[in-house]
Amino acid sequence: MGLLSCSFLLLILMASIANTIACSNGECQASLLLEECSSDSDCQTGLYCFSCGLSASRCVRYTATDEFKIVNNSLPFNKYAYLTTHNSFAIVGEPSRTGVPRVTFTNQEDSVTEQLNNGVRALMLDTYDFEDDIWLCHSNGGKCRDFTAFEPAIDTMKEIEAFLSANPSEIVTLILEDYVETPNGLTKLFNDSGLMKYWFPVSNMPQNGQDWPLVSDMVANNQRLIVFTSIRSKQDTEGIAYQWNYMVENQFLHFLSHLSSFGHTYGNDGMEAGKCFNRAESAPLNDTSKSLVLVNYFPSIPVRPIACEHNSEELIDMLNTCHGAASNRWSNFVAVDFYKRSDGGGAFQATDMLNGRLLCGCDDVHSCAAGSTSSSCGGP
Ligand SMILES: *[C@@H]1O[C@H](CO)[C@@H](O)[C@H](O)[C@H]1NC(C)=O
Ligand SMILES: *[C@@H]1O[C@H](CO)[C@@H](O)[C@H](O)[C@H]1NC(C)=O
Ligand SMILES: *[C@@H]1O[C@H](CO)[C@@H](O)[C@H](O)[C@H]1NC(C)=O
Fold first, then answer.
1. Is the pLDDT of residue 84 over 90?
2. Domain 65-373, CATH 3.20.20.190 — does that match?
3. Binding site membership of 188 for ligand 1 (Cβ less than 6 Å)
4. Ligand 3 pocket residue status of 72, Cβ below 6 Å
């Protein structure tokens, strides 16, 4: 190696040490989070440059904390919180796969692979029979059409398979709004995509409010894919868990709820600040025979420009409200649209809050890492 390249390497090494030192007091992220920026490269790792509404662009988070890594994975699956994307497949700018321009809503802005790499751990997917296959579709009346179809489900399942294969300590949960009527259609899909080898069997899911198996055991057994369907009969016919046997879930927002004048008019829809109601298919939130709690926080019609408001302070408020409604249980799944949009910490900070609460009684999972208990979280 020549002297020049050697000193160049030394320079890089010194720069990276300086960077480590600058960040080692824990203020590195704080100092750059919320700082003004003009491009993503201005922002610290894990942050990107984004403008919420009309305000100046600032560095905001786009990655989740891995609670298994910064704390541990030795607790039951239901003692952790997981960032969840609503309609994970309905991605802005996805080219049409049917040859017909798509006319339907979108809820996310990056690929399922990117979502998983950024720390999303539960995906809400709508599965339909379409073109002699199973497709992900954003439709109505239970029928996929050429102008509402996104892609063959197997493509997305293969992305999930690749992620699980590359990340042997991670668990992914799929929550299917399921319109597939083809017998064994989903089973074939999971077989064909190579996901069956990660299957977490229904027989291991607790029925009466007990704890789930330990994450460390699920990882050791390679049972790292949990799938829920909205079709009750598939639990018996295909061994796919019926979602509401295991989970309580709140009603999502009415799309006009952000307008307070309409909020009053539609006040019984379960979207009011300070209220958290179960969605119709779910048992009441305080039914503790279901060990998992899912909180949805998105409007019935996705509106990109206001998603960052929804994903910021309002989201934390709703998680607190739903905690009370769910018999003082913190939610395990927090489902949002446009998950990267926020005015700072967004859905990532909300998930950190939930994990902090669940794991050590603190407001942020980072406090648990040091082995804190609720009496020693620090802060105000
Ligand atoms: C799934 O794979 C298993 C084992 O490879 C096989 O027995 C079963 O018939 C397959 N099911 C479907 C619906 O493809
Ligand atoms: C659950 O909440 C409902 C009101 O929403 C209440 O009537 C019921 O008694 C509660 N059940 C339990 C077990 O707390
Ligand atoms: C894992 O973390 C939890 C929460 O901080 C703690 O209660 C538990 O003792 C830890 N388990 C191990 C094996 O370190």
1. yes
2. yes
3. yes
4. yes
Q: What number is the average pLDDT over the span 4-25?
A: 42
Taking the centre of ligand 3 as the mean of its atom positions, its distance from the CA of residue 214, in whole angstroms, is 12
pLDDT at 299: 86
- Tell which one of 71, 77, 330, 366 to mutate to probe ligand 3, the residue whose CB is within 8 A of the most ligand atoms: 71
Cβ-based neighbours of 270, under 8 Å, separated by 6 or more: 250, 251, 254, 276, 277, 279
What Cα–Cα distance (Å) separates residue 54 from each residue in 32, 261, 303, 304, 308? 20, 22, 15, 13, 11
CATH 3.20.20.190 maps onto the chain at 65-373
Cα distance between residue 278 and residue 261, in whole Å: 23
User: What is the Cα–Cα distance from 305 to 321, expressed in whole angstroms?
Assistant: 24
Which of 248, 285, 286 is the best mutation target for the ligand 2 pocket, counting ligand atoms within 8 Å of the beta carbon and taking the most?
A: 286
Tens digits of residue pLDDT in 221-241 = 999 999 999 999 999 999 999
pLDDT in tens, 299-341: 888 888 889 989 989 999 999 999 999 999 999 999 999 999 9
- Please give the Cα distance from 87 to 177 (Å, whole number): 9
CA of 166 to the centre of ligand 3 (A): 25
